[in-house]
Amino acid sequence: MSIEVLLFIIFNGLLYGMFLFMLSSGLTLIFGMMGILNFAHASFFMIGAYLGFQISLYSNFWIALLLAPIIVGFMGSLVEKYGLRNVHKYGHIAELLFTFGLFYIIEEIVQMIWGKTPVAYRVPELLNFPLIEVSGMAYPAYSMFRLVLSVLIFLAIYRILAKTKTGLIIKASLTNPEMVSALGHNVPRVFSNVFGFGCGLAGLAGVMAGNVIGTEPSMALLLGPIVFVVVVTGGLGSIKGALVASIIIGLMQTAAVSLEFNLNNAFEYLGYNIDINSTLNHFTSITISQLSPIVPYLLLIIILIARPRGLFGKRDV
Question: Residues 235-262: what's their mean pLDDT?
Fold first, then answer.
């Protein structure tokens, strides 16, 4: 493997991995603090992207970056207060079914408002220029901005949860809600704020990534599964685990895309040749790059078999 290919894998893997972390950090926070596996999390990501586009039309990207996550977070708080709070007493299955239905409702509402075709959500002109060049590929300043913002989000969340009184109250509200309530804290409001904040993080990721990956109604369906792969692989509720899992998946998938290697190459190296007209060749000729979309899910299966609680989780799935 050449140094150029290695640099390509590392750099693009980090960019993709930090995007996955931005997308999954909110769900990790929600599950870790509340025990709710929000199936509609990617839908809030989609709403953030569409709001980013709409607000940018009337003002600019920077105002959208500020307002859209706040709006999405407020919507998430309303969903928790008037929906999930009433469903919570019936258990996790009821919560999962509620958010599953919410996923499709949001998708239909988005299609009614913005249509079924992609919208023209553009990268801000201020950051739309090549900043650095790696292996002959130019990376725009906007990519670096997303990378830096993702790192800052991780540091902020980790500090809040590990170093502040707010983080202590949030953690205690899940394990001992009666004691926290007896100390004068409004536990339902804590849950509502946490859920809203997690949805706001998804909205922020939507604003940041919608103008790169494309803003269209099926984006939630396409990105939803990979969010759960990250959360389960890293460990349910572990922010550090979500970061590590995101980077691992980003590097693995980028490496897979870059490798045009198949089993025929391995057999040829060992002195065997597979007949190109044989049925076996249909399987041995498949390259690693062709299998790259399933790499994260293969990793998920391995993690579930070897370590059901994930890399840094404290409880099994």
Answer: 84
